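TL;DR need structure tokens for one chain.
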Amino acid sequence: MKIHPTAIIDPKAELHESVEVGPFCIIEKDVKIGEGTVIESHVKILSGTRIGKFNKISSGGSYGGLPQDLAFKPETKTYLEIGDHNHFRENVIFHRGTVEGKATVVGNHNYLMGNVHIAHDVVVGDHNIMVQNTMLAGHVVIGNKVFISGSVGVHQFVRVADYAMLAGLTKVVKDVPPYATVDGHPGLIVSLNVVGMKRAGISADVRLAIKRVYKVIYHSGFNTKQALAELKKDPNPAPEVQKVIEFFETSKRGVVDHRFVSGGSDEE
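>> reply
TL;DR here they are.
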């Protein structure tokens, strides 16, 4: 184990023998860090944090701090759980959960750039990218392969579905459905995330089917309930189409509206 002499590590912390810890880090008791994880300088990892394998943690971050919730009692036993193969850049902040025995959860293969803030009870999936100064409020849920641009703010309890893209400086106050690109104050759907879908190997036929789904929901004159009923008449929808329908059916906050872009095309 490569531990810099200026690092302070509680003897009750559990670090795999291959973990590297740089200068001036503080690791408290009841912390577990898995194989191959590298921690640079000036990082604080607080009690209740679980970090998996082969993560890279850049300087200045805080992991597992107390939730910024005035009703939270510090003696409540909660956690921060981080998966494998993530890369967190400088000054990233994670807060642990607020519910006894529960955790803020981050999956695998995520890349978070500098000054990203992950609040209490957030759940982040896999293969997501969050650019500088992204802010996720409490209880936000991020799916898989989501791209969040710089200085985006996501309201508490919002869900952002798989393959969504949030443009820079966007204010997100409602749920963001799969494959959508959202921009504005408040955020509105401006197009589909075609680049993300192509990179995911989603065929042109399926991309066109997804585009038609959004046209029915937003531009058919139906309300949401009527639009979903119309879409469900298809006896054999593509799994990607079914994912969109199910997202709208299960939204509790409501889904972001669509902004018509004159002369534009969702597919190009």
